[in-house]
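Reminder to self: tokens first, then the designed residues, so the page reads top to bottom the way the pipeline ran.
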């Protein structure tokens, strides 16, 4: 007879791990669509927050908190033809994770001018 060995690693509850695999799905002239993989939630429901800044700035802008079942978000209100840096973190009732080690760099597209609908 053979024997099976199963090892189960349990972790204590606590603050969540940072999300990973931050990825740019799509970029427009004023928005970016991001996706990520959630890290260990610390044993509690978690939420995510994206922070971003212009590449030449030190000042971050923060998104509202995003539901823990989400694996992506769209960040609107960006400036056309501008370089940005994005990071993500998670939080639960115990505390906040660090921001992700993965950083997404993007350049928004130029604004499209619609000559067909421009009054003449």
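Designed residues (120 positions):
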């Amino acid at each position: 007879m053979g024997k099976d060995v199963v090892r189960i690693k349990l972790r204590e509850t606590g603050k969540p791990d940072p999300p990973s695999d931050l990825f740019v799905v799509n970029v427009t002239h004023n928005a970016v669509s991001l996706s990520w993989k959630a890290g260990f939630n610390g044993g509690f429901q978690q939420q995510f927050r994206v922070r971003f800044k212009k590449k030449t700035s030190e000042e971050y802008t923060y998104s509202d908190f995003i539901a823990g079942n989400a694996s992506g978000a769209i960040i609107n209100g960006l400036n056309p033809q501008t370089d940005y840096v994005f990071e993500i973190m998670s939080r639960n009732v115990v505390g906040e994770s660090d921001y992700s080690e993965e950083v997404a760099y993007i350049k928004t597209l130029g604004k499209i001018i619609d000559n067909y609908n421009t009054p003449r």
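The beta strands are 20-27, 31-37, 47-54, 61-62, 66-67, 72-76, 83-91, 104-107.
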